[in-house]
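Morning - ISJ inputs below, output right after.
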Amino acid sequence: MIGSCDTWSSADAVGTGAEWSLRYTHDDDFLSISVFIPPSGRCAEAVRDVYAEIFALTGWSGYPDICRLWHYIGDINGANADGLETYRDFCVGRARAFEELRPPFGMPAATGVGSSGEGITVCVLATRAGRLTAIENPDQVPAYHYPTRYGPRPPSFARAGYLERAEGDVLFLSGTASIVGHETVHVGDLHGQLDRTLTNIRTVVGGPNLARHGVDGHFGLADFDRVKVYVRHAEHLPAVEAVCRAVFTGDPAVELVRADLCRSDLLVEVEGVIAVRGALPRVLRRADQPDRAGAPTLAQAPVVSAP
Ligand SMILES: C=C(O[C@@H]1C=C(C(=O)O)C=C[C@H]1O)C(=O)O
């Protein structure tokens, strides 16, 4: 595993705190939460409970819209105590949280990838600054409608989230892979998967698709400010890096990470951020473990009580 993590920084005053199993940092507009779920034979219930805490904290702290989630899942393609794949077990708990708690926002943009560590780390970015729209891809079945052959409960996420705010809009692209309809395409073919992934991204962020969702904007691969690429096999890293650096021509920070992915037939996955008019809370990068993403920053900061 090549260690990696994103740190979101703010020019404003930042507060930190801890509530239940959650640790958080916030400025005026954004709330960042991280939580670690220890390894166990079955994770669905713990995932459901952590999501309940996340929904409660975002609700009462006044940052009601979850614009982005990252899930770093240990042994993602391994089996739990019942023989169910860990990722599918995770999806059961998450789907239950959405069904039972019915949060007041659409499906959030998300990433769900493997981690070299054990357990599950969930990182959340929520906001109260603007209007958030969930974006789907007309060439892909919404993940929350995947059929049960991919697991007892479908994954709960949207293909992207578009945040309209006075300081400049932000598009959060979910982890995107070589899936058409609900099926993995180009199984075993790295370049086929990468091409299809890039096509899916172009479709999601393109003008016709955004217009369909009531969003006024038109973007392409050259507009990305942050790109993170997850690659299943270390030997594929150089080839994937060459393609990505050639197509993401807007000189974004392109970061490659070796990671297992949510379906064992997926070889590559790409996520990213477009900051319209450059108005993104700055993103810094530092070497760290993905499965501990966010934790060191939060631990070093003075902890204050929750409001
Ligand atoms: C690649 C896919 O899903 C992955 C899993 C996600 C999750 O479970 O949160 C989100 C995006 C991707 O990281 C997909 O289904 O297209």
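Note: DSSP finds six helices and 16 strands in the chain.

O.
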